[in-house]
């Protein structure tokens, strides 16, 4: 080697799940699968654990009400006799069962948000060839958990405001104009604008904010600012990869959930007294199975997009190589 020439990087410039360079679409998808396979415990395991604990609430409540009383038997009776009218205790039982499922769904959503934060640390570690345990990934989120929940709540409020802005003129037109045509036309237009605005906000303000908040230890608004900075002039690239990943996980989760729902429906028809329990059980199991697919893969893709943007705009691969021990500091 001639003096003055830099020594080339060794073949280990891919120390972990991804090559430390700007990533293409294939790198993203392959890297997401590799990341999940590299550390299934802190990705799939965490998602399944959270979903299983959350769904145990409605499943336990419904099972207890099914086998210790008759407050849910009217679902079976209504199948055999459509004219059957439930009594007060049966309506209360239904409300309690649905309420427990709603509570479980809320807890599962909060848990999924926290798991997404864990996956940020798992993805960063996997990129440099390190494997975090479930406990280490959880510990890495210490100090950022409430900010992460705050970011999700702020995003929810923003989307709710968008929805209010979009529906207000439609409601006003429906009230003050006799003909429904103007309200329908404006409703279609506002719906399209709402979709565009929601997608823009998701890609530019939220998509990369979660990994930025977790890995850069910034605040909620600082993370949103970083997401805006990193996604500048990259909207269509980020949107396309995000949409493709959403289609993949949506299709996969539906394939898995369909037979579960089918079995639950058959059980409910064969055993009418267990109809409601079978329905809740099918929904709970489908939620757990979907969580095992959606959260890990989607989170992996999002975090690889974050790393890719930092590599493209900030030469972040140099820092990653130093952390992996490929370069001396």
Query: What distance lies between the first and last C-alpha atoms, to the nearest angstrom?
Result: 23 Å
As residue ranges, the low-confidence spans are: 1-12
Please tell me what the overall shape is: globular
**What's the pLDDT, averaged over the residues?**
87
Number of strands: 0
- List the total number of helices: 12
Fraction of helical residues: over 70%
Estimated structural class = mainly alpha
Q: If you compute it from the alpha carbons, what radius of gyration comes out, rounded to the nearest whole angstrom?
A: 24 Å
* Largest beta-sheet details: none
Beta-strand percentage?
under 5%
Secondary-structure element pattern, one letter each: HHHHHHHHHHHH
Task: Describe it.
Helices cover about 80% and strands about 0% of the residues. The protein has a domain at about 20-140 and about 230-325. It has helices spanning about 25-40, 40-70, 75-80, 90-125, 135-140, 145-175, 180-205, 210-215, 220-230, 235-270, 275-315, 315-325. Helix 7 packs across helix 10 (about 235-270). Mean pLDDT is about 85; it is low at about 1-10. The chain is globular, with a radius of gyration of 24 Å. The protein starts with about 25 loop residues before the first helix and ends in a 5-residue tail after the last helix. The protein has 12 helices and no strands. With about 325 residues, it is an all-alpha fold.
Descriptive terms for the model:
disordered N terminus, mainly alpha, 0% strand, 329 residues, globular, 78% helix, single chain
């Amino acid at each position: 080697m001639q003096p003055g020439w830099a020594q080339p990087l060794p073949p280990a410039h891919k120390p972990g799940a991804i090559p430390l360079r700007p990533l293409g679409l294939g790198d993203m998808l392959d890297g997401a699968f590799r990341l999940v396979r590299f550390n299934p415990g802190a990705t799939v395991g965490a998602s399944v654990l959270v979903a299983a604990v959350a769904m145990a609430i409605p499943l336990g409540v419904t099972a207890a009400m099914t086998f210790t009383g008759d407050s849910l038997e009217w679902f079976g009776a209504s199948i055999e006799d459509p004219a059957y009218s439930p009594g007060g205790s049966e309506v209360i039982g239904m409300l309690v069962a649905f309420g427990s499922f709603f509570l479980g769904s809320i807890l599962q959503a909060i848990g999924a948000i926290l798991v997404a934060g864990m996956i940020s640390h798992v993805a960063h570690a996997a990129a440099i060839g390190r494997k975090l345990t479930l406990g280490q990934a959880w510990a890495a989120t210490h100090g950022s958990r409430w900010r992460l929940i705050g970011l999700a709540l702020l995003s929810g409020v923003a989307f709710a405001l968008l929805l209010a802005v979009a529906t207000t003129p439609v409601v006003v037109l429906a009230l003050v104009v006799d003909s429904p045509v103007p309200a329908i036309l404006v409703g279609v237009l506002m719906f399209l604008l709402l979709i565009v605005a929601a997608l823009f906000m998701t890609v530019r303000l939220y998509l990369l904010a979660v990994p930025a908040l977790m890995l850069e230890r910034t605040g909620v608004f600082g993370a949103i600012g970083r997401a805006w900075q990193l996604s500048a002039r990259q909207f269509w690239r980020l949107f396309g990869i995000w949409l493709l990943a959403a289609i993949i996980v949506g299709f996969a989760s539906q394939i898995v959930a369909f037979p579960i729902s089918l079995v639950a429906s058959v059980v409910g028809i064969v055993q009418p007294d267990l109809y409601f329990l079978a329905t809740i059980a099918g929904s709970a199991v489908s939620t757990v199975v979907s969580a095992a697919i959606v959260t890990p893969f989607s989170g992996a893709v999002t975090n690889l997009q974050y790393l890719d943007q930092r590599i493209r705009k900030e030469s972040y691969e140099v820092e990653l190589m130093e952390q992996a021990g490929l370069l001396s500091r």
